[in-house]
Amino acid sequence: xxxxxxxxxxxxxxxxxxxxxxxxxxxxxxxxxxxxxxxxxxxxxxxxxxxxxxxxxxxxxxxxxxxxxxxxxxxxxxxxxxxxxxxxxxxxxxxxxxxxxxxxxxxxxxxxxxxxxxxxxxxxxxxxxxxxxxxxxxxxxxxxxxxxxxxxxxxxxxxxxxxxxxxxxxxxxxxxxxxxxxxxxxxxxxxxxxxxxxxxxxxxxxxxxxxxxxxxxxxxxxxxxxxxxxxxxxxxxxxxxxxxxxxxxxxxxxxxxxxxxxxxxxxxxxxxxxxxxxxxxxxxxxxxxxxxxxxxxxxxxxxxxxxxxxxxxxxxxxxxxxxxxxxxxxxxxxxxxxxxxxxxxxxxxxxxxxxxxxxxxxxxxxxxxxxxxxxxxxxxxxxxxxxxxxxxxxxxxxxxxxxxxxxxxxxxxxxxxxxxxxxxxxxxxxxx
Length: 432
Prior knowledge:
Elements: H1 8-11, E1 18-21, E2 30-33, E3 55-57, E4 62-64, E5 71-72, E6 86-87, H2 90-95, E7 105-109, E8 115-118, E9 135-139, E10 149-150, H3 157-168, H4 183-186, E11 188-219, E12 222-248, H5 255-261, E13 270-271, E14 281-283, H6 289-311, E15 317-345, E16 348-355, E17 361-363, H7 369-396, H8 398-431
Parallel strand pairs: 10-15, 11-14
Antiparallel strand pairs: 1-2, 3-4, 4-5, 6-15, 7-8, 7-9, 8-14, 10-13, 11-12, 11-15, 15-16, 16-17
């Protein structure tokens, strides 16, 4: 094409109702059906009796007015695992609904970058993800995908505070004043974004598989037995149906802590209705759908590899090769309920999380390291004392000294093992 030649798209306009979409091949333009305009009105939540702002109650499981106590049902169907799923197609993405379906503002944390959607009358807040009060309000953007389903909150604030208070006070290795930490005052109910994936996996594997056998042999004029492994190449095929593989849609929470408050019962999924978000925060996803699918595929490959190893029928496997094919891939964008709090203690910040469906608590807790070192010293002291006593007795009373050394050595080894376990538990508590 010459320097003065016009681009091809200026000579051939796209069909009516189609818009350009990103192309990964230079010089090739792609068009897809234009998204349908949303005709629905943005909803606001006011009490029909007194006009006050109403919110969703985890206790009543419906919209509740805090001023006059009137209740309002949410007309959303409980769908569970039968909720709609979508294929990875341009048409599906073009037809996906966007926005929250209600008036929302976004709070942006200037410290960690987290963005949550809140009711329009909330202008300031403390970030539930890092504890910072450097939070800026802005108008909500309407270009984010709308969730298809969610699990409503089923545990209220009062229940959560009791559970967190008990959790903070549990365990001898933590400071006793932890019960009075600021976590209880900062607990915020937040709907976290998740992607779920369904697919059918076909995996062809090939590996060296070992068969254990026992053989007799003669050595030194005596018959003895020994175990050997015979290796031979084998192959097979595994079919693995994957249903509702969850991938968090945000990197702002610890996956280690999140894994400890799981599982969520996806049988409790309900059709998305903005009423469920009334009075609650909703975290915007920062992990896009393609990125989440790549994460899911890596996790599914690991699960498939375990299935292939089991298919060999042996615990002795080496040089495994695996070819994985994914078919009928489908996805959903859902919201799951959690309570979050980041609380300061001894010039450090710790995070606690509560499953808003089951009430399960997990998180980080500071450690009273003086208690840990005293406990380790107490575990090592008996072995060390008996060992030294055994050395002294070995000079005066050799038999008694040998016995003392042996007992001291055994106690010292047990003390070292116990000390390592205690130390690892303490580190894990702070770094969860």
